[in-house]
Write a structure and sequence with these properties.
heterodimer; A: alpha+beta; Ubiquitin-like (UB roll); DNA polymerase, domain 1; 2 domains; five-stranded mixed beta sheet; globular; B: alpha+beta; Aldehyde Oxidoreductase, domain 3; Aldehyde Oxidoreductase, domain 4; seven-stranded mixed beta sheet; 19 helices; 32 strands; about 25% strand
Chain lengths: ~170, ~775
C-alpha cells in the first residue's frame, strides 16, 4: 500500500509516494537517489545507514519512511556548508580515517551529534559514543584521531566566532 | 620530489567523506529488475520436484530460473578448481543456503512473494558436517560422482587415494621426519581448531547483469574481473570478447569477492527475462555464501633438550564445505608454511581439503595462513613451557635467517625476524619471567581488583607467501594535454590501491600526481590482472606500471628526439616534459610531444610476471617470490570472575620492504590487526545440528567495534629501502595476532585454549578446571 508523505531532506521538502512498510533507508536510496546511507546489517547494529533525524543519529534501516514526515532529516549529502566540507569531513580526510569508506557517512553524522552534545570528549567517550558504528576495515585508530582533531577545530571555530561578535 | 614514500591522502578522499563513492550497490539501469534467490532449507537432499508455475503467474514476475533451464544446451556448472557448483541446484542440494531457484521481478516485494510460491519437494539424505567424520568409510558422500577437475588445476591437484569426501591433498616432504623424531629428546603432539568465520564486508555482494545483442555485461562487486570474465564466457559459451565485466570501488572484500558469486545466477536471470537484473545479498545470505575454512591442525613436533626444533609432522583438515571454491589452494598456502618462520630440518605435511555439508569456504584475508599460525605459534609457547625455556629465546634460537632453507626447499633471503621480534618484544617490555612457567615468585596483589584481574604478555611471528606465480598487466595512456590514464584491472577495495598505484605511476612516468587518473576496471578496456588479493597489488601491479611507464618514456624519447633533432641519449625527462640535457630552454611538454607528433595519444604497456609454484606431491619449489614477515606482541588483562579479556596493548610489526604510502600501510596493518583480534576473541559462525547457521546477523555475530579495540594499538612498519622491493601489506599482520592473544591469556591465567575463539565461557571453564586440579587458592 502506498501513501504520500512529505519528507524534508537536507533542507528541501519533497512529496513522495512510499510503500507504508518501506524504511527510510529504502526511500532515501530508491526515491531520493541519496546513496550515502547504506545498508550494512538491516537490523540497526552496524550504523552504516545512520542519518540524523531532528539532529539525532537514527538507523534509517529501522525507521519507517512514513514516520519521518514532519521531521528534519540530514544525510551525508547535506553535511557540507555551502559547498565547503564540514570540519568533521575535513578532519576525516586529513587523518585518512577510512579504508573502504562504506561506514564513513554513518560515522561522520554520528560524530556531528556527539560533538554538539559534548564539544570536548575524551578518547573513552568517543569510543563509547561510536560503538554502534562498525568499521570492518578497522580504521578506528585514525577515526579517533580525526574525531578529537575535529572537536578541537570546532571549538576553535566557535571561539573565534564568539570573539568576532564581541 | 618523489611522491612514492609520501603519506598522501587517498586520491578519492573527497568522495569518501561525502558519500559519493560509486559502489556497485548504487548502480542502476533503466527497466532493471530485482532478483532474489530461493535457498535450500536442508543441508543435504535430493530434489524430487520443483513447481514454479504459481510463482510464474504472479503479476510483476518476469522470469524464474530453475534446473529446467539447464536440461538442454547450457550446462550451468562452474568452479575454479572443480566444476562442482551449479547456477541453481540440479539433482541435489548440499548445504543450507544452496541456491535452488531464482526470481526476477519488478520489485523486491514481488520477488520475495514469488519465492514463497515456488514448491520444492526434497528427499532428505544423510549429512556430514565434521571433516573427521567425513573421512570415515561409511560417511555420506557430498559429491558423487567425483566432480570434474578444471584443466588448469590438473597438475596441481593430486587425486588422493580412497578419495570419498577428500577434495584435495597437498603434501610437503623435506628431510626424513622419522629420523628427526628419533633425534629429538621430546616429541609433542597437539591439535588446534579454528571455526568458520565470515568476511562481513559491509558492502554485500551485488551484481547487475544485462544480456543484449549477444553481449553479456556484468557490473559486479568482484576482486578479480578477468577471472570472472573467463568463467562467465565458459558458462555462456561465448568468446571472451562478448563478456564484459565492470567493477568499481568495493565496500570491502577480504577475499569474499574473489570467485564467481552472484554473476552466474544474475546473468542467467537477465538472459531469461531479457531485461537487466540486479541481485543484492542480504546480510544473512552473506553468511551462507562463503566463509573462512574451519580447520583442524594436528602438530607433532620434535625438539632437542636445548630447544632446537628438529622435526615437524602435520596433518591438517581444511573443511571446504559443500563446494570446492578455491579450497585446495588455501590448503596448499596454509599447509606449506606449517613449520612457521623456524628452521626445521625434517618436515612432513599432509594438508587436506574435505567436502562436507557446511557453507562453502574460500579465501579470507591470509588465505590459510591464519589457521596455520594459530596452531604453530600456540604450540611454540606450549613447547617452551614443557622444555622450561623463555618462549622468546626459544623463538630466537630457531628463527629463520638469510641463507636458511625453508620447508619448501627455497633458500631464503631478505629476512628480518630478529628486528621484528625485538621490536614487538620491546613494545610490551618482554622479560623471561613474563612466561608463566618462569615466574620467580607470584607477588600476591593486596587489593581485591588486583586478585581478580590478571595480566599476561606474549610475542609471536608469522611467515606468509604472496601468490606465486602471478601476472599483472598495465597500460599507461598519455593524452594530448599531458594527462595520464593508468589502465589496470586492480580493484580498489579500501586498501588504497588507486592511490598507491597513482603514486607509482606519477614517479615512473615523471608526471605530477594531479594529472594521473586510475581507470576503473573494465575488461573491455583495462588489461589483464590475475586478481586483487594475496597482498599482491602494490608489488605486482606497481611493477607492471613501472614497466608500462618505461615503454611510454621510450616512445616519448624517440618522438622528442626527432622533434628536437637531438639524439635520444641527450634527453632528460622530469615534471611532464622532455629537455635537452644542459639546455633546459630546448624542451617540450609531454602534451606538446603528443600533439606535434600527431599521435592522439601514446600508450605504454607493461607486463609483470613472477615464476614459481610448489609441487603438489612434495611441496618443493618456489613458494613465494618474496616472503611476508611480521611479529605481534600484546598484553592482556583477564577478569577471572567474568572470563572477559581486555587487550591493553597490542603491537604489530611488519616488514614492508619499501613503502609507497606509509599511512596507508599503517591503516591496512591496523585493520588487519583488528581482523585478527575479532577471530581471536569472538568471531565464530555457529551451526545447529541440522547445518543451519544460527548467528547469521550482526546482532549475534560479533565483529570488532570501537570498544573491543586494544587500549593502545601500535603499528611498526619496517623498511629496508636499499632492497627496494615493495612488499604487500594487506594481510601479513593478521595471523600472529590470534595466537599472541591466546598465549598472553595463558600467561595471565594459565588457561590454554586450543579451539578458537577465546570466549569468556572457555576461559572460565579452564579456570574452574585448574582450581579442581591444583586446589591451590590463587
Amino acid at each position: 500500500m502506498k501513501q504520500t508523505v512529505k519528507l524534508r531532506v537536507n533542507g528541501l521538502e519533497q512529496e513522495v509516494a512510499v510503500q507504508t512498510h518501506h524504511t527510510l533507508l529504502e526511500v532515501l536510496r530508491q526515491e531520493f537517489k541519496l546513496f550515502g546511507a547504506r545498508e550494512g546489517c538491516g537490523i540497526g547494529m552496524c550504523g552504516a545507514c545512520t542519518v540524523l533525524v531532528d539532529g539525532k543519529p537514527i538507523s534509517s534501516c529501522l525507521m519507517l519512511a512514513a514516520l519521518a514526515e514532519g521531521r528534519e532529516l540530514l544525510t551525508i549529502e547535506g553535511m557540507d556548508e555551502g559547498g565547503k566540507l564540514h570540519p568533521i569531513q575535513q578532519a576525516f580526510i586529513d587523518h585518512n580515517a577510512f579504508q573502504c569508506s562504506y561506514c564513513t557517512p554513518g560515522f561522520i553524522l554520528t560524530v556531528k551529534t556527539l560533538l554538539e552534545e559534548n564539544p570536548n570528549p575524551s578518547a573513552q567517550e568517543v569510543r563509547s559514543y561510536l560503538s554502534g558504528n562498525l568499521c570492518r576495515c578497522g580504521s578506528y585508530v585514525k577515526i579517533l584521531d580525526a574525531v578529537l582533531d575535529a572537536a578541537g577545530r570546532l571549538r576553535e571555530g566557535r571561539a573565534s566566532a564568539g570573539s568576532g561578535r564581541s | 620530489m618523489a611522491i612514492v614514500g609520501q603519506s598522501i591522502g587517498m586520491i578519492d578522499s573527497h568522495d569518501r567523506v561525502t558519500g559519493q563513492i560509486d559502489y556497485i550497490l548504487n548502480f542502476e539501469l533503466p527497466a532493471m529488475l530485482v532478483g532474489r534467490i530461493l535457498r535450500s532449507p536442508l543441508p543435504h537432499a535430493r530434489i524430487l520436484r520443483i513447481d514454479a508455475s504459481r510463482a510464474e503467474r504472479l503479476p510483476g514476475v518476469a522470469a524464474i530460473l530453475t534446473r529446467a533451464d539447464f536440461e538442454t544446451g547450457l550446462k550451468g556448472v562452474y568452479g575454479r578448481v572443480f566444476s562442482d557448483q551449479t547456477v541453481v541446484a540440479k539433482e541435489k542440494i548440499r548445504f543450507v543456503g544452496d541456491p535452488v531457484a531464482a526470481v526476477a521481478a519488478v520489485d523486491e516485494d514481488i520477488a520475495d512473494e514469488a519465492l514463497s510460491f515456488i514448491e520444492v519437494e526434497y528427499k532428505e539424505l544423510p549429512t556430514v558436517f565434521d571433516p573427521e567424520e567425513a573421512l570415515k568409510p561409511d560417511a555420506p558422500l557430498v559429491h558423487e560422482p567425483r566432480p570434474q577437475l578444471q584443466p588448469a588445476f590438473a597438475g596441481l591437484i593430486s587425486k588422493p587415494a580412497g578419495a570419498g569426501n577428500v577434495c584435495s591433498l597437498f603434501k610437503l616432504r623435506r628431510g626424513d621426519v622419522d629420523l628427526g623424531f628419533a633425534e629429538a629428546d621430546f616429541v609433542f603432539e597437539d591439535t588446534f581448531r579454528s571455526p568458520a568465520v565470515q568476511h562481513v564486508s559491509l558492502e554485500p555482494h551485488v551484481t547487475v547483469a544485462q544480456y543484449v545483442g549477444g553481449i553479456l555485461t556484468i557490473w559486479t562487486s568482484t576482486q578479480m574481473p578477468h577471472a570472472i570474465r573467463a568463467q562467465m564466457s565458459d558458462l555462456f559459451n561465448l568468446p571472451q570478447t562478448r563478456v564484459r565485466i565492470i567493477t568499481q570501488t568495493l565496500g570491502g572484500g577480504f577475499g569474499s569477492k574473489g570467485s564467481l558469486r552472484l554473476e552466474p545466477i544474475t546473468s542467467f536471470l537477465a538472459w531469461k527475462a531479457k531485461r537487466p537484473v540486479k541481485i543484492t545479498l542480504r546480510r544473512e545470505e552473506e553468511f551462507v555464501t562463503v566463509t573462512k575454512h574451519p580447520t583442524t591442525v594436528h602438530l607433532k613436533t620434535g625438539v632437542t633438550r636445548d630447544g632446537l626444533l628438529v622435526a615437524r609432522q602435520v596433518t591438517t583438515l581444511f573443511n571446504t564445505g559443500a563446494y570446492t571454491d578455491i579450497g585446495p589452494v588455501v590448503a596448499r598456502n596454509g599447509g606449506s608454511v606449517m613449520s612457521g618462520p623456524y628452521k626445521t630440518p625434517h618436515v612432513k605435511i599432509d594438508s587436506y581439503t574435505i567436502w562436507t555439508n557446511a557453507v562453502p569456504a574460500g579465501a579470507l584475508r591470509g588465505f590459510g595462513v591464519p589457521q596455520a599460525t594459530w596452531a604453530y605459534e600456540s604450540q611454540m609457547d606450549m613447547i617452551a613451557e614443557r622444555v622450561g625455556m623463555d618462549p622468546m629465546e626459544f623463538r630466537r634460537k630457531n628463527i629463520l635467517h638469510d641463507g636458511d632453507r625453508f620447508a619448501t626447499g627455497e633458500v631464503l633471503k631478505d629476512l628480518h625476524y630478529d628486528e621484528l621480534l625485538n621490536h614487538a618484544a620491546a613494545f610490551v617490555n618482554w622479560n623471561p619471567d613474563d612466561a608463566r612457567w618462569l615466574k620467580v615468585s607470584s607477588t600476591r596483589s593486596t587489593n581485591k581488583a588486583g586478585r581478580r584481574l590478571k595480566r599476561g604478555k606474549a610475542v609471536t611471528a608469522v611467515i606468509k607467501a604472496t601468490i606465486t606465480p602471478s601476472t599483472s598487466t598495465a597500460a599507461v595512456m598519455l593524452n594530448e594535454d599531458g594527462s595520464l590514464n593508468v589502465l589496470t584491472s586492480s580493484v580498489e577495495l579500501g586498501q588504497g590501491a588507486k592511490t598507491a598505484l597513482a603514486q607509482i605511476a606519477a614517479d615512473a612516468a615523471h608526471v605530477p600526481l594531479a594529472v594521473v587518473r586510475i581507470t576503473e576496471p573494465d575488461t573491455d578496456v583495462t588489461p589483464y590482472d590475475q586478481q586483487t588479493s594475496s597482498s599482491r597489488t602494490t608489488f605486482s601491479m606497481g611493477s607492471a606500471i613501472v614497466l608500462a611507464a618505461g615503454d611510454l618514456k621510450h616512445q616519448l624519447a624517440e618522438l622528442s628526439g626527432e622533434l628536437l633533432e637531438v639524439s635520444v641519449d641527450d634527453l632528460v625527462m622530469h615534471d611532464g616534459k622532455v629537455e635537452v640535457r644542459g639546455a633546459p630552454e630546448r624542451s617540450l611538454s609531454y602534451g606538446e610531444i603528443v600533439r606535434k607528433g600527431r599521435r592522439g595519444n601514446l600508450i605504454g604497456n607493461g607486463t609483470f610476471t613472477t615464476r614459481g609454484g610448489l609441487d603438489q606431491e612434495t611441496g618443493q619449489g618456489i613458494g613465494s617470490v618474496h616472503w611476508h614477515q611480521a611479529a605481534a606482541a600484546c598484553e592482556v588483562e583477564v577478569d577471572t570472575e567474568t572470563g572477559k579479556v581486555r587487550i591493553l596493548k597490542l603491537n604489530s610489526s611488519v616488514f614492508a620492504g619499501r613503502m609507497v604510502n606509509p599511512r596507508l600501510c599503517e591503516l591496512q596493518t591496523e585493520g588487519s590487526t583488528y581482523f585478527g583480534l575479532g577471530q581471536a576473541l569472538f568471531e565464530e559462525m555457529v551451526y545447529d545440528d541440522n547445518g543451519h547457521v544460527i548467528n547469521s546477523n550482526l546482532g549475534d555475530y560479533m565483529i570488532p567495534s570501537f570498544k573491543d579495540g586494544p587500549d593502545e594499538l601500535n603499528v611498526s612498519i619496517l623498511e629496508h629501502e636499499e632492497n627496494g622491493e615493495i612488499h604487500g601489506i594487506g594481510e601479513t599482520s593478521l595471523p600472529p595476532v590470534v595466537p599472541v592473544i591466546a598465549n598472553a591469556v595463558y600467561n595471565a591465567v594459565g588457561v590454554r585454549i586450543t579451539d578458537l575463539p577465546l570466549t569468556p565461557e572457555k576461559i572460565l571453564r579452564g579456570l574452574e578446571d585448574r582450581h579442581k586440579t591444583d586446589k591451590m587458592p590463587e
